[in-house]
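From the pipeline queue, job 12 of 40. The input is one protein chain; the requested action is below.

Action: predict structure.
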Amino acid sequence: MTDYDARCLIETAHALADAAREATLMYFRSAALGVENKAGQGFDPVTRADRACEAAMRAILAERRPDDGILGEELDNIPSRSGLTWVLDPIDGTRGFMCGTPTWGVLIALADATGPILGVIDQPYIGERFLGGFGRAEFTGPHGGRALATAAPRPLSEASVFSTFPEVGSPEEGRAFAALAGQARLVRYGMDCYAYALVAMGHVDLVVEAGLHPYDIQAPIAVVEASGGIVTDWQGGPAHGGGRVIAAANPRVHAEALAILSAAA
């Protein structure tokens, strides 16, 4: 990491997030979404806003960082010539976006061969941005900004747990999550990437999910870990490839969650 120009890379990440705000807010709560279903079975929506947002970010990277790779949700991957890859999810939480809820977000990560080294979670409508990496963990919003820090250790019986979908993946994964949720004080659903931002802010203890893609989790990994948290898969290994994920505020609550999920799944 010491070989990278951190200032330049952070400036680029902010430029991408600024462009994403403009592109997504053109469509949010409008009748011009143009929703399509990407799934052969079930419902996996994509909108004009998703594609416009990713295109806007890619245009900036083509100008500023032409040798970097791009892994995005909606458009073709571009291989890296620099050893760095930008991992983009233009709208994480498209279902929420469609419904007008302000809980979706734009995810921007920068990864090298080891995984994500910089991440941004941005919520354009409420104007909140969470950044982690290169020794920085910070929040900015309409009422000011501050450093990010995850919550202090407390037992699972006093913890709050979030997940996007009550089913949490397959029936087997759902049963494993239910075993964990049954021991927590509070369980909430449907926040998408904003739940990880709340872990980084110190308001939530755990986010547990399954069936994720790399672009769903790499930015949250960078933000949560820079803020003092820990993110792994359900066996305690690296999570930047997606799949089953535990994002925890601290090692204590992570260990409790891991013991339940690794045994039940």
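Job complete. Residues 6-25 form the longest helix (20 residues).
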